[in-house]
Amino acid sequence: MTAPSRYHQITGEVVSIPPRFPAPRAWWLLFAGALALLALWVVAVAVLLVRGPGVWGNNIPVGWGFPIIGYVWWLGIGHAGTLISSMLLLLSRSWRNSLNRFAEAMTLFAVVCAGLLPILHLGRPWYFYWMAPYPNTMGVWPQFRSPLAWDFFAVVVYLVVSVAFWYVGIIPDLASARDRATKRRWQFFFGLLALGWRGAGSHWLRWRQAYRLTAALAIPLVALVTASYALLFAGGPVHGWNSTIFPAYFLVGAVFSGFAVVGILAVVIRSLLGLRDLITPLHFDRIGKLLLATGLMTLYGYLADAFTALYGGGYELETLHDRVGGAYAWSFWGAVVLNFVPLQFMWRRRFRTSPIVLALVGVSVAAGMWLERYMLVVTGLFRDWTGSSTGLFHATFWDWALFAGFIGVFATGMLLFVRLLPVVSAFEIKREIGESGG
Amino acid sequence: MAERTCPYAVLAEFDAPRALVEGAGTLRGDGWRIETFSPFPLDGLGDAIGFSDRAVPVAVLVGAVLGAALIFAIQAGANLDYPLDVGGRPLVTVPGFLLVTLECGILGAVLAGIGTMLARNGLPRLHHPLFNAERFSLASDDRFFLAILVDGDADRAHDARAALWRCGAVDVVDVGEQLVA
């Protein structure tokens, strides 16, 4: 096929999705499910606001519970979207172009979920803006020497940078969608969003400068954000948390869970939209390899963490005992099994390229990483330094309702993105064809 | 007496990126004011159109420094304004401030870089005379365009059309008729 008609085919394939959606029935079914979960989220938040955090299982000594477990889990999922997009862009790995757009959208909605959780956890969420340093009549400031203040900046900066990176990357495709749109409402929608982009040469060159620099800055930002919330754990004198390996351990675990979700989304989006020649077995193969690599790094983190406890002894060792054989041993062994046992399928190319296997391993890892966050938060807190502050944590109905509700928040956002915007970076795929002799 | 009109620009269509880049280089060498339009960023285009704008990288650097300096000053200022002695530790605790400082440095860099990119590109600008050209919408699909801006000079428009055809254009049209006094 000649290059121009191949360009045209890709434009058509990607940009025509919103106006002529290929799978309206499946989309509506999924969207109805997502809206039901979103409704549950609204109810769970309303109950929380009216009755307070007492509706949750959180209590002293386990004051963190589901909101912080969820916060770390969602933020971790988000990191893979940034890394897959920016690192592979700078390394000129062209297969990224089929994945980066929806992986970045995944980041956005995951960060929205992650940002809302600590706010809801505040107890009086309507005062969340007290975390920002602004001149106020009370004459007080956030405590910048505390990791809690670092967290606020980490999430806000990460959200803004993720939105900016994603939006700058989608502008040229929005212009393409605008130029293809035939119905007035789509012309209007894409016309406004595309900002009048017309593909001028000097515009492209400045765009490339801005896009690549943003990508280069997003990579250290991911490390800074994981460091912020890892130090939130490691900074305090809590056994099981007070460890300098946490920033690195959290980073690989975060990326591991994120690649798992990228794998799930790649399979779902490919079959929902019929993008079989844009998201190919090659992409599944690469995601599978990344999953395997980051999974093994996470396993190393587990081993290093256990070794530190064995080497250090004392309370650290007691926490390790609690993890492997105590009241929450199910969360530790659940994490180990779900994270690392199905992962072993990824050694074989045959399984990596199978969408169903990749999606199932992805679900297993996402669940396993959630259990890991549960294990870390709860086993660190439920037995404190003194025997008097020992208390088991039991999640309540409203804990689970909010957990499920946040999946609804994420799924609603992702489904609207898939329905309304170009899900694959068409112009970057065209550029790749052009470079290879178009 | 019939009114005389002259185009704002002469727009040539190419069907391959290489022809566009080569044509742009040649025409710029001949002293024409040109602009290219393509569905994706083209390699070698910077040299062809003589692009040497460093505003975006400079803005990124300035934004990074300003963002980091501002938040560091806020952190130090907040601690000095409301001093809390935590175990005798210093009020201005540089290692403790670094994460937020670096994060806000990145925020400043990204916002400055993208803001400068949009501003220097003159975006958002929802309408442009070139959008009136019938086939210009293909510039975001599979066609490559080269415009010579003639600024209402009818003689130059005539020469521009000839120059564009010589570059191997598959089509040449006038865009944006304007009345000539």
What would a concise description of this structure say?
Chain A has 438 residues and is an all-alpha fold.
Provide a descriptive summary of the structure in words.
Chain A is an all-alpha fold. Chain A has one domain: Up-down Bundle (Formate dehydrogenase/DMSO reductase fold), CATH 1.20.1630.10. Chain A is 72% helix and 0% strand. Chain A contains 15 helices and no strands. The model of chain A has no long low-confidence stretch (mean pLDDT 90). Chain B is of the alpha+beta class and 181 residues long. Chain B has two domains: 102 residues, Alpha-Beta Plaits, CATH 3.30.70; 66 residues, no CATH class. Helix content of chain B is 46%, strand content 17%. Chain B is built from five helices and four strands. In chain B, strands 2-3-1-4 form a four-stranded antiparallel β-sheet, covered by helices on one side. In chain B, helix 3 runs antiparallel to helix 4. The longest helix of chain B is centred in the middle third of the chain and has 27 residues. In chain B, 42% of the residues are buried. Classes of the chains: A mainly alpha (438), B alpha+beta (181). At the A-B interface, helix 1, helix 5, helix 7 and helix 15 of A face strand 2, helix 2, helix 3 and helix 4 of B.
Large-scale geometry of chain A: globular
Largest sheet data of chain B: 4 strands, antiparallel
Overall domain count of chain A: 1
Report strand % of chain B: 15-25%
Name the shape of chain B in a single word: elongated
Structural class from helices and strands of chain A?
Answer: mainly alpha
CATH topology of the largest domain in chain B: Alpha-Beta Plaits
How many individual domains of chain B? 2
* Helical content of chain B (DSSP H or I, runs of 4+): 40-55%
Number of DSSP-assigned strands of chain B: 4
Cα-based radius of gyration of chain A, to the nearest Å: 23 Å
Protein structure class of chain B: alpha+beta
Low-confidence stretches of chain B: none
Helical stretch tally of chain A: 15
- What number is the mean pLDDT of chain B? 85
> What is the string of SSEs of chain B from the N terminus onward?
EHEHHHEHE
For the termini of chain A, the CA-CA separation is: 10 Å
Number of helices of chain B: 5
